[in-house]
Amino acid sequence: MEQQKTETRSITAEQRKRVEEVCFRSLALIGRNCEYLEQHFDRTGADTSTRQAVADIDTAAIQLDRTLTEAITLLEFLHEDTKPQLYPIDLCELLQQVAAQSDMIRAQLGVDIRLDYGGCTTCCVMADRRDAELLCLHLLSNALHASREGGSVCIALRRTESGWQLTVTDDGCGLPGEDVQAALENRRSFLGGAQLGLLLCRECCRRMDWSLQLEPAPEKGTQAVVSIPLYTGESRPAGTVELRTGSETEQEQRKYHLRAMLVREMRTMPERGDPEDEF
Questions:
Q1: Which of 50, 71, 104, 166 might form a disulfide with 46, Cβ 3.0–4.6 angstroms?
Q2: What confidence category does residue 273 fall into, taking pLDDT thresholds of 50, 70 and 90?
Q3: Contact call for residues 154 and 116 (beta carbons, < 8 A)
Q4: Where are the alpha helices (DSSP H) in 80-148?
Q5: How many CB atoms lie within 10 A of CB 203?
Q6: Residue 1 pLDDT greater than 50, yes or no
Q7: What pLDDT score does 112 carry?
Q8: Which among 89, 79, 87 is positioned nearest to 124, based on CA atoms?
Q9: pLDDT score recorded for residue 18
Q10: Cβ(188)–Cβ(278) below 8 Å
Q11: Distance (Å, rounded) from C-alpha 160 to C-alpha 20?
Q12: Largest distance between two CA atoms of the chain
């Protein structure tokens, strides 16, 4: 009897997919209407308050789209019975594709991205590429959310005795801690977020047998430290799914895929300005 109740209360994959389709279709409609209204205002004119109201609706829809996507991905991960199949990937290549968007980030947010390999040219690790991309994207996104205009984010990769250490460091608001001002600045930087990004990062690490630690940066800000086990195979093994295909076309596709994901993330960033004006 209890089993029947559980089955009745559970939602099937098909039902969940229909819910997702309805939600994303509605969000897309909101986005298209906001775009139409902005174009209409450009032709006919509108007061500042009306324009700001439409912009606020568009921003809220983008944030909701992001939160819904994160929640769906997180639920998929949590409901999977087995971990994904891991293959060797070149982490240096993936980070290069992320850092390739530095000009766009600097132009839009005024934040510099610095990539530091510590002299490494390749870094082969066992990973699921989708999970590794999500992890890098969300760690960078969190760092950008915390940073102010004129700030910087450093993505560093170092070899350790037991593996590799990936560190994403920002000079932004820092962890909330006990400092009231830092807590206020942290809340302002991540205003409206459901804080699913960090959960998703931890889940990506768990699935790949990596680990994630957040800690204060040495001077100011926060650093996310990802510990990655050492790959014991050859430096660039042949015949694997991830490393066999390295054509320029695929690399460009991956770069533009990451760019599209990052553009979407940047549209959820808070407006830059003097933090003193916001309290």
A1: 50
A2: very low
A3: yes
A4: 91-99, 102-109, 129-146
A5: 20
A6: no
A7: 93
A8: 89
A9: 85
A10: yes
A11: 42
A12: 65
Indicate if the alpha-carbon torsion angle 25, 30, 33, 39 is positive or negative. Answer: negative
Task: Point out which residues pair with 48 in neighbouring strands.
Answer: none
As given in the structure block, the two tokens for residue 265 are 């993330």
Q: What is the mean pLDDT of residues 108-118?
A: 89
- pLDDT tens-digit series, residues 50-74: 999 998 898 888 878 878 888 888 8
Of 93, 113, 96, 97, the closest CA to residue 255 belongs to 97
Contact 63, 192 (CB under 8 A): yes
Specify the amino acid at residue 84. Answer: P
Q: For residue 209, give the nearest of 83, 92, 90 by alpha carbon.
A: 83
Task: State the residue for tokens 């790959």.
Answer: 231
Q: Which long-range contacts (CB under 8 A, 24 or more apart) does 77-85 make?
A: 77/200, 77/203, 77/204, 77/207, 78/203, 83/207, 83/208, 83/209, 84/128, 84/130, 84/131, 84/207, 84/208, 85/128
Q: Is 88 left (phi over 0), alpha (psi -120 to 50) or beta?
A: beta
State the Cα–Cα distance between residues 51 and 47, nearest whole angstrom: 6
**Residue 87 dihedral angles phi and psi, to the nearest 5°:** -130, 155
For residue 274 the two structure tokens come to 């003097």
Q: Which residues lie below 8 Å from residue 88, measured CB to CB, with a gap of 6+?
A: 124, 125, 126, 127, 231, 233, 236, 237, 240, 242, 243
Residue from 261, 22, 263, 266 nearest 144 by CA? 266
